[in-house]
Design brief:
By secondary structure, the chain is an all-alpha fold. The chain has three domains: 11-85; 86-170, Serine Threonine Protein Phosphatase 5, Tetratricopeptide repeat, CATH 1.25.40; 182-270, Alpha Horseshoe (Serine Threonine Protein Phosphatase 5, Tetratricopeptide repeat), CATH 1.25.40. Helix content is 79%, strand content 0%. It is built from twelve helices and no strands. The protein has helices at 2-31, 35-47, 51-64, 71-84, 88-101, 108-122, 131-146, 153-180, 184-197, 204-220, 224-244, 251-267. α11 (224-244) runs antiparallel to α12 (251-267). The radius of gyration is 30 Å and the shape is rod-shaped. The N and C termini lie far apart (101 Å). Residues 38-178 form the Outer membrane lipoprotein BamD-like domain. Keywords: Cell outer membrane, Membrane, Signal.
Length: 270
């Protein structure tokens, strides 16, 4: 047992010395006035995956090399360091700035893609604010417009589809929330906007049925002076639905709302 503890103690001592040596070396690099030495060590740290250390050095070198032939490489290292640290907000900023500053660079395509990808990584789940999702979509589209023959086209389109599905789910959930809280006017508007924005939605059949139902419930709860107009809108929505989904699982329910709307209109004639 004593031997085990002695071995463990020795291991901890060696590890501590290793850490202290590493820190001592890094502090030496930080304090050095030799720019070439710092540049070499910054790249070494980066290649070894020590991105925080590399970033501190590259940030300093970015100022020192500004306007020189090395500025481009250092700026890309700064963006990459943030990227590998999963600092996607800063990565997005630095990649975007790189692509604008060095549009003719062989790294420009990668920078613009990684800028968009960083926004993609910042995109939250559909229940949260989707500003980053929308930003990622814009950036991916700009990337494809600028590099239509890129080797990254398929993966970019896959991510665009994923982001659009997230936006669609957000819109669908919001529309259903209006419906569930009996705000039928807002539900009808939101559902129609959903069809306009996402015409190929896999939920389109359900959405169009909910438009019929919401518009009917909105109509029958309206004041008398508005009821006829809104019941006619329900009938119009019903016809659009059955024209597209004659064999829908919702057809019987849709027909019942249609029939009720007709009866309500007939009553108003007397």
């Amino acid at each position: 047992m004593r031997d085990i503890f002695e071995n463990l103690r020795l291991t901890l001592i060696i590890f501590s010395l290793f850490i202290l040596t590493g820190c001592s070396e890094y502090n030496k690099v930080l304090k050095s006035t030799d720019v070439e030495y710092k540049y070499t060590k910054a790249k070494e740290y980066f290649d070894e995956g020590e991105y925080s250390k590399a970033l501190s050095l590259f940030d300093e070198l970015g100022t020192l090399f500004r306007g020189s032939s090395r500025s481009e490489e250092v700026q890309f290292y700064i963006a990459d360091s943030h990227y590998y640290l999963k600092d996607y907000y800063f990565a997005n900023y630095y990649y975007k700035n790189f692509a604008k500053t060095y549009p003719a660079s062989p790294r420009a395509e990668t920078a613009q893609f990684k800028s968009a990808y960083s926004s993609y990584m910042n995109s939250p789940k559909s229940s949260l604010d989707q500003t980053e999702t929308e930003q990622a979509l814009i950036e991916f589209q700009l990337f494809l417009n600028r590099y239509p023959n890129t080797d990254l086209k398929d993966s970019t389109n896959t991510m665009i589809d994923e982001l659009r599905m997230k936006l669609e789910k957000k819109s669908f959930d919001n529309a259903k929330l209006y419906y569930l809280t009996e705000n039928y006017k807002s539900a009808t508007v939101a559902l129609k906007n959903l069809i306009r924005d996402f015409p190929d939605s896999p939920h389109r059949e359900e959405i169009e049925f909910l438009i019929v139902k919401s518009s009917y419930l909105y109509a029958i709860n309206s004041i008398e002076s508005k009821k006829e107009e809104r019941l006619n809108e329900t009938i119009e929505n019903y016809h659009k639905f059955v024209d597209s989904y004659q064999n829908s699982e919702y057809i019987e329910k849709a027909e019942s709302y249609y029939a009720d709307a007709i009866r309500e209109l007939d009553k108003m004639k007397f």
